[in-house]
């Protein structure tokens, strides 16, 4: 097996600012299309969004998509047609399985301070399921030198359920910390994004918000270069069924 790598440098992302939303798109999204950036396996969207105080995305429909929201700063108010509004802040993670169709919106819960979050979309394994959502607090803000596992297709280790062969993890590590990440399933690849700091992954140096897709391998070597660093890992199937 010969490892393959695709670099997604932070400076190559599409940047758009419309007055209330400051967004960076790693992959094609809505009015942005790049035939070379249509996704990584089942991973379709990695948006790095900052919303102005009191603003947000109004009610809109999603279907057949797994949507993961990971707050980085401030508070987000999320509403959908399945239940009461919820507010999430750094450490919280929400997974929305849109399935056959779900209406939701996302707002900055603070009228003054900005709110930042990662918005991640992954194609589902099973289509047209009954829509559902859940969220949970994970102490990845205070944990150190360990991966905090956020999602899994079988809810292992208290993870949130994701309707796909995909495992999301995040971790904060100190300088020199090195570990081997083993892919969870044959046919999966690893998308990694540096949230903060500097890392080396399988010989490639990644800075703040740089990303990389690694596939056709069983494991990936990860090392922290900066004094501290935080990294997001998305272990996702590369096999897409129509």
Task: Report on this structure.
The chain is mostly beta strands. The strands form 4 sheets. The chain has a 7-stranded mixed β-sheet with strand order 1-20-17-22-15-13-14, with no helix packed on it. A 7-stranded antiparallel β-sheet has the order 2-3-4-11-6-9-12, with no helix packed on it. A 4-stranded antiparallel β-sheet has the order 5-10-7-8, with no helix packed on it. Strand 18 (199-201) and strand 19 (204-206) form a beta hairpin. It has a single domain (4-237), classed as Jelly Rolls, CATH 2.60.120.10. It is globular. The model has no long low-confidence stretch (mean pLDDT 95). Helices cover 0% and strands 56% of the residues.
Radius of gyration: 17 Å
**Number of beta strands:** 22
Report the span from N to C terminus.
26 Å
**Overall morphology:** globular
CATH superfamily: Jelly Rolls
Low-confidence stretches: none
Q: Strand order, biggest sheet?
A: 1-20-17-22-15-13-14
Largest sheet: 7 strands, mixed
User: Can you count the helices?
Assistant: 0
User: Which CATH-level-2 architecture?
Assistant: Sandwich
CATH class: Mainly Beta
Mean pLDDT over all positions: 95
Indicate the percent of residues in helices: under 10%
Summarize the topology.
Elements: E1 4-8, E2 14-17, E3 21-25, E4 43-51, E5 56-62, E6 66-73, E7 76-80, E8 83-88, E9 92-97, E10 102-108, E11 115-122, E12 132-137, E13 146-152, E14 160-161, E15 166-174, E16 178-182, E17 188-196, E18 199-201, E19 204-206, E20 211-215, E21 219-224, E22 228-237
Parallel strand pairs: 13-14
Antiparallel strand pairs: 1-20, 2-3, 3-4, 4-11, 5-10, 6-9, 6-11, 7-8, 7-10, 9-12, 13-15, 15-22, 16-21, 17-20, 17-22, 18-19, 18-21
């Amino acid at each position: 097996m010969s490892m393959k790598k695709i670099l997604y440098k932070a400076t190559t992302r599409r940047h758009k600012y419309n007055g209330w939303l400051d967004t960076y798109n790693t992959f094609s999204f809505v009015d942005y299309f790049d035939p070379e950036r249509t996704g990584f396996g089942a991973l379709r969207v990695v948006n790095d969004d900052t919303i102005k105080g009191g603003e947000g995305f109004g009610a809109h429909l999603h279907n057949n998509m797994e949507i993961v929201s990971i707050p980085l700063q401030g508070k987000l108010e999320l509403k959908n047609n399945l239940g009461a509004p919820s507010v999430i802040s750094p450490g919280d993670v929400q997974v929305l399985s849109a399935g056959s169709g779900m209406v939701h919106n996302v707002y900055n819960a603070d009228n003054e301070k900005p709110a930042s979050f990662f918005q991640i979309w992954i194609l589902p394994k099973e289509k047209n399921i009954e829509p559902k959502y859940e969220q949970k607090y994970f102490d990845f803000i205070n944990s150190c030198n360990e991966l905090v596992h956020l999602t899994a297709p079988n809810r292992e280790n208290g993870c949130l359920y994701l309707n796909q062969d995909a495992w999301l993890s995040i971790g904060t590590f100190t300088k020199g910390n090195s570990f081997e990440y083993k892919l969870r399933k044959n046919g999966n690849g690893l998308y990694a994004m540096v949230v903060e700091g500097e890392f080396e992954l399988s010989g490639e140096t990644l800075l703040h918000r740089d990303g990389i897709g690694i596939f056709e391998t069983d494991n990936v070597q990860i090392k922290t270069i900066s004094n501290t660093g935080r990294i997001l890992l998305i272990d996702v199937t590369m096999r897409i069924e129509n």
